[in-house]
Fold:
Amino acid sequence: MIGREALSGAFATIHAAFDELIECDCGALATREQLAMLKNYEKIRRRLPALEHPLINSLARQATPEELGGKLSHAIAEETLISRGQAAQRIKEARDLGPRRGLTGEPMDPTMPATAEAQRHGSLGTGQVAVIRRFYHQLPGWIDAETREQVEARLAKEGSQFRPEQLADLADTLADCLNPDGNYSDEDRARQRGLTLGNQQADGMSQLRGWLTPEARATLEAVLAKLAAPGMCNPDDEKPCVDASPSEEAIEGDARSASQRNHDALNAVLRGSLASGKLGQHNGLPASIIVTTTLAELEAAAGRGLTGGGTVLPMSDVIRLARHAHHYLAIFDKGKALALYHTKRLASPAQRIVLYAKDRGCSGPGCTTPGYYCEVHHVTDWAQCRATDVNNLTFACGPQHRLLRPGGWTTRKNARGDTEWLPPPHLDRGQPRINTFHHPEMLLHDGDDDEP
Ligand SMILES: [Zn+2]
Structure:
């Protein structure tokens, strides 16, 4: 057991040693010595995660959502200012490589003991650890525990001698030896399936990547055979052909690549599905694309709209979409919300649309959840005010909405109409916080009017 003083003493020692190293003039060292020094630094870098794993696992076991202000990955991201994706990665790595506890609290070895041990000693780096974890998680389900342990130990040993790309080759060979016939069960495939929509880039484009099950592939194939054929669903055509057979002229004039045709076919399927009205409701509104923009931008047919999912749409797309599907277009003049007053417990669909424009996403501290996935929260409890006024509403994601209950976190509106989140008094986490994530422009304005 280490005391708090010993702990802060150890940190002071590390920082003092770093300060000393930074002052070092390494230019005088010989080439061999400089390379050796880099190896030393790499060793330090490699050992660091092993120090974090026990902390992360202990937090995962003990800390309440109340104390964390939401999910663990969000709290780690907030505290250390790393991305939420990175924080989630670290939690997963800690689960594989950190100490565990059994059901009754008894200490247990890490899931991958040999890799964990090697990481503690700095003989495996980030790259090697990633290779071994990927290999381990992709092993077919029928491979027994003993074999798993053996190959994990083997890779951990080889990883201390080879670079990640060499280790990856070795892992592939090992996987082939273990499963020469390529026997994978439905469970293995089900585990691996997934689609990830990447972040929107500066040019507005997004990368879609993932793994399809054989069934999903067969389905997609059949749809593409029809809709991605030359002449089908071509946005360059005056009236794109989406259900009949394309005319000879449409086929002749189709200059798109096969990949572009696939893209347009998928878009046509999804748009058809939205327009069919068969998707029902989502959060009280018909499943639809919700776009908010300003009147000035709409009239000028320039600028951009923002969807409830956080996607930036060029105005040309907003207008094109309006021709195809049922959707809601909320227009705002100088950021003023419509005044809507209701005496109902639930926010009306119109109020939800206003929130897409006002809040854009969860108003919880540091939260990145877009509006489509948010619940509506009454800032002043409905039981007290008996009115559902849109200026009294805010968006909150599920995990953070659950923190808002008597004795827990609270919210209030400040003079500017922004929602402030306050932790319960016993947590002592400082000032009320406003989420600027969905309103980056607020950070730019803030400097001026915060001056006393
Ligand atoms: Zn949230």
